[in-house]
Amino acid sequence: MFNTRVKIKALLAQEPQNQEVTVMGWVRTFRNNQFIALNDGSTGNNLQVVAELGKFDEELLKRITTGASLKVKGTVVPSLGKGQKMDLVAQSIEVLGDSDAEKFPLQPKKHSLEFLREIAHLRFRTNTFSAVFRVRHTLAFAVHKFFHEKGFVYLHTPIITASDAEGAGEMFRVTTLPFDNPPRNEDGSINFKEDFFGRSTNLTVSGQLEGELGAMAFSDIYTFGPTFRAENSNTTRHLAEFWMIEPEMAFYDLEDNMNLAEEFIKYIIKYAIDNNKEDLEFLAQRLTEEEKQLPQDKRSEMGLMEKLDFVLNNNFERITYTEAIEILINSPAYKKKKFQYDVKWGIDMQSEHERYLVEKHFKKPVIVTNYPKDIKAFYMRQNEDGKTVAAMDILAPGIGEIVGGSQREERLEKLEERMAQMHIPASELWWYLDTRRFGSVPHAGFGLGFERMVQFVTGMGNIRDVIAFPRTPKSAEF
Ligand code: ATP
Ligand code: MN
Question: Percent of the chain at pLDDT above 90?
């Protein structure tokens, strides 16, 4: 039986008073043939296990190498060394799994994040990644806690769908048809009637449309699941498979929507600070070290903890798209032609523009509202001006867009009109339009990219380093 062991996090919270315990974990380092730094993933802190000189077999000691797994029974005593409050003086040490020190890719030294990405199957065993993934866990838990406390229903929307919510062609197709000789129609096109579902299907790009159906019965729902986009964007903020949180609320307008999004973001950040302080402090330290490589003007003005506190204690700036464009046009950066892409009303802001607004101009998260209708999805509520829609994007320092949302068009005629203009076949979305036929209500919702949130909280610069096994163009190892 293994379950009598104590986890290292729980043990380190105790006072050392000669208690006899069993611990299990992986060796991080073994110094002077005597001191084992043991880690079991419950905390970033290692337990110092002392193998007293002369007490153990040479053969056994040789097998205590970085990466090996051990079961240790011993007595907990106050540590004589600095840096830890307790030692576990070993009575017995059992090697559960050897790790050939010559072959084990993780050496007890600093590895680059790029290298660790190539050994993503082992990178959880590093200080950085174990901290990131504990924080990720806490944030995920906080997401459910927040919505649960507010009475939202967690709705599981489908992974395989026949609709493309955005009307954008960035989907992964799901099919069982043979590649080499698919059934064809008379005109040569592929006959999807013969496919598994009797029609063409794909992996979901968003659960929103189905989420709206739920909101029309439960009032408030949220989804939290994987989302797939075959976009060929090789950026530090895009994955082909990412997790999205999509709340959808009946009887909400754009302002209610913004208020909820801001409260939600602050709640989960606070929850992580309250529950993962050590990991966050470690990551803050890591970021400071990393930024020392950069020229002074490229370093963050605030440390990670400071930044998170700042976000908690300040309101997000709220501006309209039109105001945002004016700020950009009047900016020194624009006048000095520092932007690569031109700025004028109607553009889809590029990340350089978003970053200017957030990092240079306001220096805090910004909610931009009322975008031109032509750059936004068909379901967003049309404003009286005939030009804009009740959209909102939240932009975060260092990340750019973290939330995209809107009040939805609840008026059937307006919605049908917009769909026709955008060539979205109403016949395929008959079920969606039914919500506007039977008891339609003003409603709103948003999508928060979970990995971008994890990046924001952990300070990790590349989105590939906050998801366990990243899927990106030309990369699906593990
Ligand atoms: P972007 O302009 O950054 O590509 P988007 O406008 O395509 O974002 P939405 O369709 O509004 O994004 O999706 C909602 C949220 O999902 C975004 O605010 C972002 O946080 C996240 N997101 C979108 N695409 C990706 C992706 N490829 N990888 C990770 N997160 C993403
Ligand atoms: Mn996109």
Answer: 91
